[in-house]
Amino acid sequence: xxxxxxxxxxxxxxxxxxxxxxxxxxxxxxxxxxxxxxxxxxxxxxxxxxxxxxxxxxxxxxxxxxxxxxxxxxxxxxxxxxxxxxxxxxxxxxxxxxxxxxxxxxxxxxxxxxxxxxxxxxxxxxxxxxxxxxxxxxxxxxxxxxxxxxxxxxxxxxxxxxxxxxxxxxxxxxxxxxxxxxxxxxxxxxxxxxxxxxxxxxxxxxxxxxxxxxxxxxxxxxxxxxxxxxxxxxxxxxxxxxxxxxxxxxxxxxxxxxxxxxxxxxxxxxxxxxxxxxxxxxxxxxxxxxxxxxxxxxxxxxxxxxxxxxxxxxxxxxxxxxxxxxxxxxxxxxxxxxxxxxxxxxxxxxxxxxxxxxxxxxxxxxxxxxxxxxxxxxxxxxxxxxxxxxxxxxxxxxxxxxxxxxxxxxxxxxxxxxxxxxxxxxxxxxxxxxxxxxxx
Length: 440
Ligand code: CA
Prior knowledge:
Blueprint: E1 37-41, E2 48-53, E3 56-59, H1 60-65, H2 71-79, H3 86-91, H4 93-107, H5 114-117, E4 121-123, E5 128-129, E6 138-141, H6 145-155, E7 171-173, E8 179-181, E9 186-187, E10 190-193, E11 202-205, E12 209-210, E13 213-219, E14 238-245, E15 248-249, H7 250-256, E16 270-272, H8 279-282, E17 286-287, H9 306-311, E18 313-314, E19 317-323, H10 325-329, E20 335-341, H11 349-357, E21 368-370, H12 385-388, E22 396-397, E23 403-404, E24 412-419, E25 427-428, E26 432-437
Parallel strand pairs: 6-21, 8-16, 9-26
Antiparallel strand pairs: 1-2, 1-5, 2-3, 3-4, 6-7, 10-11, 12-15, 13-14, 13-21, 14-16, 17-18, 19-20, 19-24, 22-23, 24-25, 24-26
Helix pairs in contact: 2-4
Calcium ion is lined by residues 140, 212, 214, 246, 370, 372-373.
């Protein structure tokens, strides 16, 4: 760890810290430096809060009952003593940080609490993972500028980026009821489609089913109706992050999207990774917002903050994999469709929140924001299959001999994320995955 610690780093970030949970040490996603929160059901048990540590989950209510917490950490653990994390999210940063520091102590290799905590672990492989919060509202942004440009080209070849894009963090209000946890299968939607060359639409299964690689943002403390959140303090309203797959039916979208934007092309399902990666865990992986290209307009003052420009972006590698029935039958590993990074976001999370609330809209604990599809500039970094196959024109060839222009029934789409930086332990998000079921 660098000698001079930024203010938001502490001993819980020390890369030398190891855990008595052996599988945590060197774990790709959940070393002791991560400590993400989630809701799980042990075999035969009711949903409850837990903390991922290596291949295990620490049962948070059981740790509370064992007397392992005091002060702010106890307040946080008590708030998490139900079947969702909304009350913990509402407490904000202080108690969440206290809980993290205490969990780091309890789980560290030299902890005097080891004997008390050892019996409170569940093997992650044996549990069910759920949505971590009751999602009141879900908003999807469009801050991946390479995606906006690539898709804009497909829909409007001579006018890819609309004139508002570099001024407004574009978004729309999505549907919370159909957001499902990773692992829940997703059924191919039916809808109204205008076939190429036809003069009247048909109703049937989408033939152009796609994924969208997004960063999900969990809202912690909310804001009162009519009280905008300033961009400089917007980070205080973030409880954590997840991976989000905003499944999209491109043929339904192309017909329905004008003039009001996405509707049934998006509302049939969105998948989220179940672990809430806290802002504290991601603190080492913050970076300056990449400078805007020469000629781009400066953001308006309500979207401008020096601290946000200096450290409001994230360096998180995002990966998309596909596993098909053909690959599985032949015992072949999943095929990598893309490797992207959150640094390709044109607007920061704080700018998204400041804009969302700038007219007075109130955010509430457990609300979920999607970043929009995060593509890099190259085809190998595309966050949707629409971009990878150039609108279905260039098929993806798999080692099984199969080809894909869009997703087929039985395909499993898997997102992963990894944050790494010299001098720190790298952490991951766990996976966000789902298999496509045939239309019904
Ligand atoms: Ca989206």
